Target: Cytochrome bc1 complex cytochrome c subunit
Amino acid sequence: MSEKRLSLSPARFLSARRRHRSAGLVVLLFGLLAVGSAYAAFAPDNAVADNSAQSQQIEEGKKLFAVGCSSCHGLNAEGGGNGEGKMAGPSLIGVGAAAVDFQVGTGRMPAMQTGAQVPRKTPAYTQAEIEALAAYVASLAPGPAVPAQESYDISKATDEQVTRGGELFRTNCTACHNFAGRGGALPNGKYAPSLMNVDPKHIYEAMLTGPQQMPVFSDQVMQPEDKRDIIAYLHALQEQKDPGGFGLGRLGPVSEGLWGWLVGIGVLVCVAVWIGAKGVKAKGAKASE
Model:
């Protein structure tokens, strides 16, 4: 047997060695090692840096949440309020980063006191802190993400898109916000806020998440381009001038008619009283003569 091996040429001997049943496994291991080495050399620096930055942001958001939000929403965002003077906040698990960015970015959260409606006010957190809070809540469960800027960018909106946005707004939104987006009253002390001078991102997030009593217009219910057209329409309304000088809230003919009665008729009554008083004085002066 040994003489037969010695009689083989070097090429045939190596070929026989490569046909060993474990040779395929060895080649596979060497291939995986080579691919892993190449990936480690070129890719993971950025990946590890991104993961590290995201983890740090989530951890920062968790700390902010524990200090400013957990008293109402629970330490783990499971919902709070136990009848011991704490405000009952809903669970935030699954609401997504968009809901947090809207509520905290518009100053509605943290709420100062309970009430039928949480009003918009100056935000209590910086933009970096808002992003950290949103990242933490988003890490708890899947939910709507903060929309990309191109989703609500209306800088290149055409007249056709503005007109289409007006049709969509009148169909879906005027029942609460009135046809001019100035807001309106709702039952039980609630109200639909004015949409004037609101950041386009926050309008998009409100449609996406449905804050308070507002219905949710998800991307499956209303396409992103439809939301963008509505925002373009609202911006056009905001830029529109009032031909009469006073908008009167743009509440329609009722408010305009009421203004006409109170001011117009009121002025006429005052003029009539003045004329009557002048006439009485004139008669009294003639009688004294």
Remarks:
- The longest strand covers residues 184-185.
- Residues 49-140 form a domain with the Cytochrome Bc1 Complex; Chain D, domain 2 fold (CATH 1.10.760.10).
